[in-house]
Design brief:
7-stranded parallel beta sheet, 32% helix, single chain, 13 strands, Leucine-rich repeat, LRR (right-handed beta-alpha superhelix)
């Protein structure tokens, strides 16, 4: 059975998540595919517990639902709350039969998907700690023209743990960073991509990044009230309010012999050669 919650405006979902899991368990329904949200444009509220005083689903109910899943797609706004982290830690650690995990990231301009505390983020739960022994497909998808930052050390560790089973990888809309030194992003991305090529047995991979544009007079980059600007000019925003210049991404693409097509690079090309 496939169940999808695709309406981002339905805030009642999270306040009812405990009842939903309990009902599935009591009815002994097997849910193999669970979809939360609808891609990058329609994301559910990430307030898993429905409020500070709301109870989380029982461990038995979470374990029952999660243990039956083979496909899980998560598209939620990341509020970086301890209670959310607790939910994802318990839920994902019980999803032992996952074959496909897809996460659509949440990031507005000026925001990083991880915060300093790194509590409550799906990546801070999944990448450093969890292993899915049947995982064949892993996707983390951000906005192509406003890429999400992902910590290279965590990503490398996760991919290494899943090298035996992983066959499909999509990291579109991501920049792989050194969390403590934003100016080494070019080196970190190059290093990670080379490791993927030598250590993984992938059948397909995508890592699409859109080339950001510069306006000649840079008026809209300096002035936020330019309504005609789509906010895709200027450098890529990094962790700690650092920036990565477009020229650095251009140089990385040249180093890895990745061609610009339709205003986008697909760094998965260099892995699949």
């Amino acid at each position: 059975m496939r169940i999808a919650y695709a309406a981002a405006s339905d805030q009642r979902y999270w306040t009812q998540v405990d009842k939903f899991f309990e009902a599935v368990k009591d009815a002994k329904v097997v849910v193999e595919e669970l979809v939360l949200g609808n891609g990058s444009d329609e994301q559910l509220s990430y307030d898993i517990s429905g409020g500070h005083n709301e109870a989380l689903p029982s461990h038995q109910a979470m374990t029952y639902v999660a243990s039956k899943l083979t496909h899980l797609t998560i598209s939620c706004k990341d509020n970086d709350e301890k209670r959310d982290w607790k939910f994802w830690r318990n839920f994902l650690s019980s999803a032992t039969n996952l074959e496909k995990l897809c996460v659509y990231t949440h990031r507005d301009i000026g925001e990083s998907w991880h915060t300093v505390q790194e509590l409550g983020t799906i990546f801070s739960t999944v990448l450093p700690h969890l292993t899915f022994k049947k995982l064949r497909t892993f996707a983390v998808i951000g906005k192509l023209n406003q890429p999400t930052n992902v910590r290279g050390v965590w990503l490398n560790a996760f991919l290494t743990r899943h090298a035996a089973t992983l066959r499909s990888l999509d990291l579109s809309g991501l920049l792989i960073v050194n969390w403590y030194k934003a100016d080494s992003t070019k080196y970190m991305m190059s290093s990670c991509l080379r490791k993927m090529r030598t250590q993984l047995k992938l059948e397909e991979m995508k890592m699409v990044v859109q080339r950001r544009n510069h306006h000649e007079d840079e008026a809209c980059w300096l002035n936020d009230d330019d309504s005609a600007c789509d906010k895709t000019c200027g450098p890529y925003e990094m962790v700690g309010y650092q920036q990565m210049e477009v020229a650095e991404v251009v140089a990385l693409a040249a180093e890895l012999s990745v061609q610009l097509r339709g205003g986008r690079w697909d760094f998965g090309e260099c892995v699949m050669r």
